[in-house]
Design brief:
It is built from one helix and 26 strands. The chain is mainly beta. It has three domains: 131 residues, Immunoglobulins (Immunoglobulin-like, Sandwich); 101 residues, Immunoglobulin-like (Sandwich); 100 residues, Sandwich (Immunoglobulin-like), CATH 2.60.40.10. A five-stranded mixed β-sheet has the order 2-9-8-4-6, with no helix packed on it. Strands 10, 12, 14, 15 and 16 form a five-stranded antiparallel β-sheet that branches. A hairpin with a 6-residue loop joins strand 23 and strand 24. The longest helix has 11 residues. The protein starts with a helix and ends with a strand.
Length: 334
């Protein structure tokens, strides 16, 4: 009787997840000298080296807005492989040695019984390269906040003896139009201007778009410029500058910059709280309502990547109630 009771009790216990081991074939890669312009893309291969059980990739964490990731297969069984593709926007990165890191989070999957919650395990992936800047795109990323139609300018500069020429421009939104100017030479450099217009019909809200510049350079067929458009209702709050930048000097432990929030035409503004998913970013502001709310963004040096970075910061307002403003915060490190 006791063996039967023991068997019943054992049968009522949820089965733990099977042993699952996920490893990177090569977790670090050096791409050597890389010319800025096209995205720097590398595929890392992960292999399930366990003998039984499945493993699930639950996410890929990157410390820089310049780094995008895709996962080819989120759930793997023994012997199966998944590719993690990392793509770096080289236009936004400083010349010279750079390193970009991503952390892959994964966990075993329970094969029977109720789901078993277990902490994620991690694999760090790293790409290094020495960036050589010959082609400049200014600005390398654009943030536009507007209540109506507005035009911004992108300039492509090439100092090489045989410079590239932008032949055509396209965008990912029909409400974001581009006009291409002919190239002109000044002080030994060729410059070509693109006028980018957010039209009146652009939808209200925050949208991430891309401007694609097609060129004559076989090694750099296209340049991709990210554009974040915040289309406001008339009379809504504005932030100046639209894309605050924090610039470190050598030896600084933290650096900061200011942003001013106001209502065109006048009105009281009060910030209730400021949120950012990046632990390196914090904010300080006055609790009082006034015609302008000033927010100081602070970036801590020991928590940021050596090549600089970018993070989205959300400001939730108490006055006017219900208003939420998101700005891209950029920081540069010498």
């Amino acid at each position: 009787m006791y063996p039967i009771l023991a068997a019943l009790l054992l049968g009522a216990t949820p089965a733990p997840p099977e042993t699952a081991t996920l490893v990177a074939v090569a977790a670090t890669v050096d791409r050597g000298d890389v010319r800025t312009g096209p995205p720097l893309t590398h595929k890392f291969e992960l292999v399930h080296r366990g003998t039984s059980g499945a493993v699930e990739i639950t996410g890929v964490e990157t410390g820089c807005g310049c780094l995008k990731s895709t996962v080819s297969r989120p759930v793997l069984r023994p012997g199966e492989r998944s590719e993690i593709t990392l793509a770096v926007s080289t236009l936004t990165q400083p010349p010279g040695p750079n390193a970009w890191r991503a952390v892959v989070h994964f966990r075993p999957v329970a094969q029977s019984g109720p789901p078993v919650v277990s902490p994620d395990e991690q694999i760090e992936l790293k790409v290094t390269a020495t960036l050589i800047r010959e082609v400049f795109v200014t600005p390398p990323a654009l943030a536009v906040s507007t209540a109506g139609a507005v035009t911004r300018t992108i300039t492509v500069t090439d100092r090489r003896p045989i410079p590239l020429t932008v032949t055509s421009v396209s965008t990912t939104s029909p409400f974001l139009t581009a006009s291409l100017h002919s190239p002109a030479t000044d002080a030994g450099a060729q410059n070509q201007v693109v006028d980018l217009t957010v039209t009146d019909r652009f939808p209200t809200g925050e949208t991430d778009e891309t401007v694609v510049l097609n060129t004559t350079d076989p090694a750099c067929r296209e340049l991709r410029v990210p554009v974040r458009v915040t289309k406001r209702l008339v009379g809504a709050v504005v932030v100046v500058p639209e894309a605050p930048t924090v610039r470190f000097v050598r030896g600084q432990t933290e650096a900061s910059t200011l942003a001013h929030v106001r209502i065109p035409g006048g009105g009281l503004v009060r910030v209730e709280r400021v949120e950012c998913a990046n632990p390196a970013v914090s904010a300080r502001w006055s609790q009082d309502a006034g015609p302008v709310a000033t927010v100081r963004f602070v970036v801590t040096a020991d928590k940021v990547a050596p090549q600089g970075g970018r993070a989205d910061v959300r400001m939730i307002l108490a006055t006017p109630p219900g208003e939420v403003v998101t700005v891209p915060l950029v920081w540069t490190v010498p």
